[in-house]
Each structure stands twice: as structure tokens, then as C-alpha cells.
Protein 1
Amino acid sequence: MQTMDIVDTHIHVFNSLLPLAPERRYAPSYDATMADYFRRGRAAGITRAVLVQPSFLGCDNSFMCAELQKHPGALRGIAAIPPDIAPDTLADLRRTGVVGIRLNLDGLPLPCFHQPQWRSLLAQLARHDMLVEVHRDARDLRELIPPLLDAGLRVVVDHFGRPDDALGCEDTGFRYLLSQAASRRVWVKLAAGYRNGWSDPAAAAAVEAGALLLEHFGADRLVWGSDWPHTRHEESNDIPGTLAALGAWVPSAEQRHTILGASAMQLFGFES
């Protein structure tokens, strides 16, 4: 019987001695290696993973890309890049296994997508069939998603869409996110609920958000990520726990299989 593919769509790898971005919110005091992740992930049944460039490393994706080249069948990458990246550099990233970029906009100004350098970048991403991941509070998604869709891109929204802690699923930004399901070009990551203030994975707000996302998007437009190594939340989280949390958000085993397998395999370009 063939083993089911389980894809972890959100992990970070780094070395604490790597040069850090001048502007950062956090600096690691430990290493998160691919060997360590493989040991933990495989014990939990995970077969593939998506490396997401850590914000504290800025736009130097070289460490991540080196790992992608070592494990081309098992890994894909999401890079951080400047809007004025050279076309050849973007093409090189694509060849190494980078399938998209991340706009980690937590605490940063929103991009001006109408500017020429952004219009050029979005067109390049579309030509390379690369997706865009968005990490931002739900209230700003209304400004971010439409220009990306208009450019012909697929959009992945991180961490349940980051609804406001106090408003929860009544956040108008979260409700806007639900409305974008009809495009069929928006996916949402069920990952790191603790970054939304849900210390308990089975908290009522997390369960409600998961149910609404499933109702509107369907399992084939949701993916799961462990957020390993859970930076700044290391002591209270691990891979088995974050994987088990999916059971609270998506009670149906069949739907969980779609989220963990087929949805992520297709979105991130893994071969069966």
C-alpha cells in the first residue's frame, strides 16, 4: 500500500552564525538544520516540506537554496526578494526549487503595487508561474490581494489570514478573505494559530476560523504548516502537536488528507 504524502508547507531552516538582516524583530540563538527537521518530521509521517525564508535573514536566500539543491524531490522554497530583483536572479531561484516569494509585511509599510518596479516583478512572477505568500493582518488583505490576482498570480495567505485577536472571525478583513475563495486562486495556510494569540490549538476562535475557511475555500484550497522551529514559541510547540491541531480545525479525515496531501502537492509543484 502506498504511503500518503504529507506536506509541511511552512518551515524555516537557518544557522545562528549567518549574517542577519539589519532590520529585524528577532535573532536566533540556535541552529535549525535540515537534518534536525527531517528527523522530527519523518517521525511524524511528513514526506515533503516547503522552506520559507526567515525574515531575519532578509533577502539572502543562499542558505535555503543550498538545502533545496540537496533535496530536490522533497523540498520546495519560498524566497524573500527585493522588488527590483534582476530577472536572471529570479530565474536562478526558480531553477533551484523556489516556487514563490513571501511578502512578510508584519509591521512594515504596504507595497505600492502600482509602481513600475512592482508591476515588473509581478509580471516576472507570473511568467515563471510563481506564487505569492502574504503575511499581514487581515485588515489589510483587501489592499493586497486584488493587485496580485489582477497580475495573474496565485496567492497564499499565511496563518489563517491573521484575524484581529479581539474581533476573531468577525474581523471584516477575515470576512473579506472568505469572499476571495470564489476566485479559486487564493489558498490559506492553517498554520501557527499561536501567532494569532490562540495559545490552545483547539481554542474556540481557531476552531471557528478553521470551519469557516473550510466551508468557503474547500479542502483543496487549504494547506497545513508546522511553522517549525516555532521561533519565539519553541517551548510550547512541536511538530506532532501542530499536526494534531489540524484535527481540531478539520474534523474530517478525508478533508485532512486532501489538505495535507493533494492540495499542497499541487500548489507547490511536487511530483507524485
Protein 2
Amino acid sequence: MERKNFVYIVQCRDQSLYTGWTTDLEERLKTHNGENGGSAAKYTRGRRPVDLVYSEEFETKSEALKRECAIKRLTRKKKWDLINSKREQE
């Protein structure tokens, strides 16, 4: 079974944005919100709850990590442009 790779953006309670990578988006969100006892990212731990506002799926971990780095380099405005453009497509 091939693992899917996701890049995601969550919006924290303080309205900040956090970008990450995972192979299990649903479980990772639970972890960020402290629902499964896992280790949330240090950044989001004190900013719960978080809400998923964006995600992309990739075939390989390498592709996902490259995209994660690219998104992390974007300004907040550009991240919101990305989020909003995906919402318009749905």
C-alpha cells in the first residue's frame, strides 16, 4: 500500500498559520489538537484549537517536503491567497 503525503496549513486559535507535512492528515490534526496523546508541534501546542484551512496531496515525501518549504517561504498574504484560491476551486 502506497502512503500518501500531505502538505497542510492550519489556522491556530490566535489566527496564526502553521504549515506542515504528514502521511496521515486526520491523525496529524488530532495530534495538533491534543486529541490522541501524540506530540503536537511546539508551535501549535499553545495555540489550540487548530483548524485545517489548506492541504495538498503528493505521491512522494520528497515532493511534499519541497512544497512545504516553498509554502513556508511565502508571506502571510500569499498563504491566504493560496488558501482562498483553493477554496474558490472547490
Protein 3
Amino acid sequence: MQFGGVVLAKLEKQAVLLLVVQALFAVGNALSGTFVPVYLWKASQSYTLIGWFTMAQYACSGLTFWLAGKWVKEHNKMNSLRAGIALSGLFYCTVLLLAGEAQRYAIPLGALNGVALGFFWLAYNVVYFEITEPDTRDSYNGWAGLSVSGAGIVAPWISGILITSMSGEKGYRLIFTLSLIIFAATVILSFWLKKRKSHGTYNWRHGWQQLSQKGNAWRRMFAAIVAQGVREGVFMFLIGLVVYISTKDESKLGTYALITSLVALASFWAAGKWLKRSNRSRAMLIGSVMIAVVVVPLFWKMSYTTLLLLGIGTSLFIPLYFVPMTSSVFDLIGSSRESAEEREEFVVLREAGLVTGRLIGLSCYLIVLPLNDSALAITCLLLAVGSFPIASWWLLRPLLKNGSYIS
């Protein structure tokens, strides 16, 4: 099977296995993660509670990246990966046991999920850097996006059907249980990933040292990553919640995820095939502008139809922004031998930028929505934070020029 000029069967076996682990992790989260905000909303009817759950998740994820960086760099990064998967299972197990009382523990639950995501994605990003090269990253990211989109096609759709077809909370209990089983299987599979060599000493102040150096390309890159995070901080949870609030039907939310993931599957495939280092800047410009433009139909009317247009439009154009953005970050990490040896610290720095941006975006949500939760207010918020990726492109133009990393 060929994708983006790379034959999957010819990839290093460890790379293929890492993609499978990521796909299973995505399936586990897609089954239940889409519906956790809905579950909390149904119990609380509070935008504020959802916001603080998400705030705890983002903050603890970023803190875990920084603290676990020493473990990943100096000890066994694969154990960090497994810990993240296991803690994700524990998160859904806890929600399952708390049932209707989960809303009372929204902040601790958000913190637990954040720690789980921090452990997993820190280790995953370091290993991803180690098994890819500049010429294969766009294709690998295309494959990764393809697998995540594939996970999002069927899992939420099945979850939505199960929830609506079962009385009370039986459907939620079933999907949380299924996620728990998938995470357990993923932990077992991860033991086939080889232990990778550790080297060097973790530098706790590395990120600050990079950003304090005048002319350092990471100052520009960090700002671009923050802009990326501002959008993610709101879009990652609010769109699904708004779809449910607009329809009051979990099955329609599942169908929404099915349709948008199908579109994303095709667009990530196309992005991996078409994108090269030479056309990243043009792709990022088109992608960043269009994922803001697709919010505009919501000003006409916030309905399932207009939200579906938003979802389809985002799925079509997000790869043009996301793939070059991700590839450029890791190319900068690998721009010199010294930089590559500090890959764990740079992955932590990248996450610090994302978390900073997510917290900024979420803070805007917590300011606006508790005061005014009208369709117009939500649409204005989505357009405002959804336009920040344009700033990412503008900041990265010098770094993207001819694939060179100049300040």
C-alpha cells in the first residue's frame, strides 16, 4: 500500500508498530473522548464546568511534559508511553465508576486525563522524531493523520448509536468499558516496541534558554506554536459539545464525527501525497485562511447543517495547515546535531507553546461563554480563535522559505 510516495510495507517495522499503537490510542479516545464533555454537560448544564475540566486537562498535560522530560531523556521512554495509555484507561475507568457523580470531580478528572495525555504524547513525539527524516515527515504525518481520521470514522458513530439505543447511562457505561479494554490491549501491544537508547542529561531550563537568545529561530517557532494552540484550546472540545446542544442527540454527534472523519481521511491522504518541503508555505497559507473562513456560515444560523459545513470544511483544509506545521517543528529540532541531541527538551518546548496557546484560547472561552452563551457569541469566539493559525503562517514564513531555518 502506497501513500505520499512511501510504501507502508517498506517502512521500518517499529515505525509501523508505532502507527498502530497511535491508531489504537486514537480509537480508544474516539470511542469515549468525544462524549465526555457531553456526559458532563448533561449532568451539569454548565459551560463553566466543561471549561474548568478542560483547563485542568491542558495544564496538567503541559506540566507532565516538563516533569516527565527527565524520565524520557535519561531512562525508558517506552515506559512513559505505556504509562500514558494505562492512565487513559484509568481515566475512563474512574468516569465509569463515578457515573452521575463525575461532574463533582470534573477538575481532578481533567487533571488525570491531562497527565495521561502528557505521558503518552511526550514519548510518542520523541520516538516519532527518532524514526523519521525531513524527507519522510510529511508522508509520515499524512499516515498518522490518516490513522487518526480512520479511528474517528467508525468509533464515535458506533458510540452515538449505542448511547441513544440504550436507556439511562447504560450506553455511556458500555463505551467507557470498551475504551478501557482497548487501552489495555494497546499497553500489551506496546511491549513489542523496542526499548530505545537513552543519552544525555535533561536540562530543566532548556526552553527558557532558547527563547532568551536573540535571533534564535525557536522564538519565532514558539510564537507560531502558541497561535496554533489558541485555536486548538477551544475547537478540540467545543464543536462536539455545540453539535450535541444543537441536536440533543448523541447519534447525530456520532454521525457528525463519521462524516467529518471520512473527509479528513481523504484530505490527509491527499496532503501526504502532494505536500513537499518546497510548497509548505503556500499550503499553510491556504489551510490557515480556509479553516477560519469555514466558521462564517454559523453567522447565518447555528444548526446541524451549518455545523456540518464547518466540520467538512475544517476536515478538508486542516491538513494543509497541520502537516507543514508539524513537519516544520521537527525539522527545526533536527536542523543540527546538537539540536537533535536535545530533542526531548525541544519536544517539551513545543508542548509548552501548545499549552500556552490552549490556555489563552480556553481563557477567552471562560470569559465569554459564562456571560453570553448565545449562538452569535459562540460563533464570534470560534471565528476569533479560529483565525490564529494565520498568525502561525505569518510567523513561520522566514523559516519555511526554501526549507531553510533562518531567523
